[in-house]
Amino acid sequence: MRIRSEGSTVDEVRGQARGRAATPRAGRPRQAEVARLAGVSQTTVSLVLGGKADDVAISAQTRRKVLGAAERLGYVPDPAASRLAAARNNLLGVFSFTATFPTDVQHSYYPFLVGVEQEAAAQGFDLVLFTGSSTGGARAGAHALHRARLADGCLVLGRHAPADQLQRLVDDGFPVVHLGRRDEPEGLAWVGADYVTAARAVVGDLVARGHREVVLVCEDDPVPASTDRERGFHEGLLAAGVPTGPERVHRCADPERDLTPERLRAWLAAGVTAIVVEETDTSAAWRALNAAVSAAGLDCPRDVSLALLGSPPPDHNGPDPTGFDLPRARLGAAAVRALAALVAGGRPDEPLVECAFRPGATVGPPPR
C-alpha cells in the first residue's frame, strides 16, 4: 500500500532524499531515512524522536525539520528498540490471587481492572495479566509471583496474597503495589480505600436517626480491610456517645448457616434495631442477612435497618443499600500511578482513596 503525502508517494520522497529514483523497501522507514530527508545526522534524529532534544543544543528549526520528515515518511519508532534503550519493557503486571481472573463484568474486581487499564494507557504502559489461580493461587509455592518479574513492576490483587513472596520482591527492589492496605511485608507499597472514615460516617447516620442498639456483622477473616471497617464502626458509635465493645461485633465463618431467621429474631428481641454488614468479595453475609429478613417475614427498614459497609453485589435487585460506595475504578487508577512512580524510582503519594456515602433506602428510624 502506498501512503501519499503532499502529492508524492513515500517512495518518491525517499528517492528525492537520495537524489535518485526511489526503490521501494519492505518494512517500516528507518531513522537513517528520516535523517537523509531532514538533512541532519542520524544522532540528531535519535535525540529528537527519543524526546531528548532538550538535553542537548538542538534548535527548534532542526527539531521541526526532523519531525516533519518523520511525518512525511510515516516513521513509527520500533517498540522493542525503544524498550531496550530504556532498559525496561514498558509493561506493568497485574497478578490476581482470586479464584478466577476477574474479567467478568459481574465480578467485584472488574471495575478495578477498568481503572487499571485506563490509567496504564494514560501512563504509556501496556499490561500483562497473571493469575495465581492457574498455579494454585496462594498455595502455588515459593515462586508463584516470580513470573511477575517479566514486567517492570506488578500490581497485586487479592485478600490473601502471600506475604513471603511479596517480601522477596520488595527485598529485591522490584516495584510492586498491593491493591488494599497491607501491614506486612515491611516496605510494601499499597493503595486502599479509607474504610475507617467511611464506616464511621455510616454509623453516624444510624445514630442520627435514633439507633442505639447496633450490631456489626462481618465474616471471620481478619484482613486489614475488615479491621479498618470494624475500627470505623466503633469510632462512629463512640463519637456519638454510644458505648461500644467486642459484644457489638458478630463474626461468622459460614454466613448462610449462621445468619438465620432465628438469629435475626433473637437480635430484635434483645433490642437491636440496626445491623451493619461488612462487604467482602463474595457478599455472603449481606446475601444471607437479606434472605433471613425475607424468610422471617420482616420488612426493611420498617422492622430493622440494614447498612452495608461497601458497594452492593452486581446482581443485587432489592432496595439500594444505605452505606458507602467503594471507588473501585479510582482505586485501580491510583494503584497504577503508585506503581508507575515506583518504576520511575519515586514513591507513591496517595495511599488512601475516599469512599462516598450512599444514602440508600434500607435505613429508617428505629421501630417503636
TrEMBL record:
InterPro entries: HTH_LacI, LacI/GalR-like_sensor, Lambda_DNA-bd_dom_sf, Peripla_BP_I. The keyword tRNA-binding does not apply. CDD domains: HTH_LacI (cd01392), PBP1_LacI_sugar_binding-like (cd06267). Pfam families: LacI, Peripla_BP_3. PROSITE patterns: HTH_LACI_2 (PS50932). Gene3D superfamilies: 3.40.50.2300, lambda repressor-like DNA-binding domains. Residues 1-30 are annotated as: Disordered. Residues 16-26 have a biased composition (Low complexity). Residues 29-86 form the HTH lacI-type domain. Keywords: DNA-binding, Repressor, Transcription, Transcription regulation. SUPFAM superfamilies: lambda repressor-like DNA-binding domains, Periplasmic binding protein-like I. PANTHER family: HTH-TYPE TRANSCRIPTIONAL REPRESSOR PURR-RELATED, LACI-RELATED TRANSCRIPTIONAL REPRESSOR. This is LacI family transcriptional regulator. It comes from Streptomyces bohaiensis.
